[in-house]
Specification:
Elements: E1 7-15, E2 19-22, H1 23-30, H2 34-40, E3 45-48, H3 55-70, E4 75-81, H4 92-99, E5 107-111, H5 117-131, E6 136-145, E7 158-168, E8 173-183, E9 189-190, E10 199-200, H6 202-222, E11 231-236, H7 242-254, H8 261-268, H9 275-278, H10 285-296, E12 304-311, E13 315-323, H11 333-341, E14 344-345, H12 348-356, E15 365-367, E16 376-382, E17 385-390
Parallel strand pairs: 2-14, 4-5, 4-6, 11-12
Antiparallel strand pairs: 1-7, 1-8, 2-3, 6-7, 8-13, 9-10, 12-13, 15-16, 16-17
Helix pairs in contact: 3-4, 6-7
The structure holds coenzyme A (COA).
Length: 391
């Protein structure tokens, strides 16, 4: 493991939506035994965006505490990962750059490869900081996971954004070389440009995830990565939190180890606390698992954490990180709890109405009702232009 030039996550903050749909409400509506949602897929509730929220407003809410703490002077790059892009050309990060008042001397670009995009952004950020350790990169992963009403994917929706400041001599986590990589052309999940909801073959996606995990672990080992036993915990991509348990069980099998449920729970359970109530946040999901681990673990100083990033289609990457001494005084646990607890519950009718909302495509002026209590909101679609305002 290469740690000589320590580069990694200096600050980490997430934000989510104004509204929440409890799975008990969904189960009552669709006649599903709640055990399927709570135990079968491991989900309690899911975040639902207000009419005036989207990947930009969530990103601003996630990143604002970071720029408030560290300033903006050293940020020369913003990498915005998403698979629920709002424009085919303009990067969503440019709106965020403007709303946060970032320097004009910062480049901004958007990255896409399903749920893997956040990890691609993190790795590119590390390369940029390695080239010039005085620079910092703001990495944002922001997504709204949306499937058709009454489809199997519906209970695995959600929405959230993570912002990470990537820097030399990081305060939270040093990211290590090597990475284990795996790419395969599969159609387990995709969203054609003309659709607002994703298409998913859920069971195929579970199989593809496990194959990609196996392939990337093989490469990680061949590249000289850590042995399994080194890791105090594993942060998996969590399209639903039960997937982390399936994945870790598979990894133990691949490594010829016992699949002791207590041991699996020990390395995973602190990583799922936030995602079980937020739902799937695609690119942000694995980094919210990290926030959950850091916020809930007693002390992880100098311990190694494993990361398993998977993006349908598919690309996977496994890498390790080491938790930095003193990390606990830099955490944002109270802010994270507040973001979750402040959400307002929806009844089924209101949820379905928000789900089906879309803008007319006539190029007219379409104001958006004020609903969010977050720091930025979508004001209107005006002659095909999205207009935002900050509080
Ligand atoms: N009590 C407890 N568990 C129950 C249950 C009950 N009453 N009823 C069902 N279950 C369990 C099932 O046994 C199953 O567990 P298992 O996978 O360990 O066998 C689990 O709940 C799900 O049941 P299943 O019948 O497979 O549900 P489904 O056909 O509705 O599909 C998903 C579930 C997760 C595949 C579906 O929601 C989906 O496609 N989600 C999208 C996933 C995604 O986004 N993938 C792409 C990114 S990786």
């Amino acid at each position: 493991m290469t740690q000589d030039a320590a580069i990694g996550i200096h600050d980490l903050s997430f934000a989510t939506t104004e509204f929440v749909l409890n799975h008990t409400t969904l189960a009552e509506h669709d006649g599903t035994d709640i055990g399927k949602y709570h135990r079968g897929i491991g989900q309690q509730s899911m975040s639902v965006p207000a009419a005036d929220e989207d990947i930009v407003t969530m990103a601003v809410a996630a990143a604002a505490p970071i720029t408030a703490r560290h300033g903006t002077d050293q940020i020369r790059t913003v990498l915005f990962a998403t698979e629920t892009s709002i424009d085919q050309s303009k990067a969503a990060g440019i709106y965020v750059h403007s709303l946060l008042g970032l320097p004009s001397s910062a480049r901004v670009v958007e990255l896409k490869q399903a749920c893997y995009g956040g990890t691609a952004a993190l790795q590119l950020a590390i390369g940029l900081v390695r080239r010039d350790p005085t620079q910092r990169v703001l990495v944002i992963a922001s997504d709204v996971s949306k499937y058709e009403l009454d489809s199997p994917g519906e209970p695995t929706q959600g929405a959230a954004a993570v912002a990470m400041l990537v820097a030399a001599d990081p305060a939270l986590l040093r990211i290590e070389d090597p990475s284990g990589l795996y790419t395969a052309d599969v159609m387990d999940f995709w969203r054609p440009n003309y659709r607002s909801t994703a298409l998913v073959d859920g069971h195929e996606s579970i199989t593809a995830y496990l194959q990609a995990l196996e392939g990337s672990w093989k490469d990680y080992t061949e590249q000289g990565g850590r042995p399994l036993g080194d890791f105090a915990a594993f942060c998996y991509h969590q399209p639903f939190t039960k997937m982390a348990y399936k994945a870790h069980c598979h990894l133990l099998n691949v490594c010829g180890q016992d699949t002791d449920p207590d041991e699996i729970a020990r390395v995973l359970e602190l990583t799922t606390a936030y995602n079980t109530v937020l739902g799937n946040s695609y690119t942000a999901s694995m980094y919210i698992a990290l926030a959950s681990l850091l916020d809930h673990a007693d002390d992880l100083t100098d311990r190694a954490v494993g990361f398993v990033s998977y993006g349908s289609g598919s690309v996977a990457e496994i890498f390790g990180g080491t938790v930095v001494p003193g990390y606990r005084k830099h955490l944002r646990t109270a802010g994270h709890r507040e973001a979750i607890d402040r959400r307002r519950p929806l009844d089924i009718a209101r949820y379905r109405e928000l789900h089906e909302r879309s803008f007319p495509t006539d190029g007219g002026v379409h104001p958006v009702p004020r609903q969010t209590g977050g720091p930025a909101r979508l004001l209107a679609l005006d002659h095909h232009k999205r207009l935002y305002e900050s509080r």
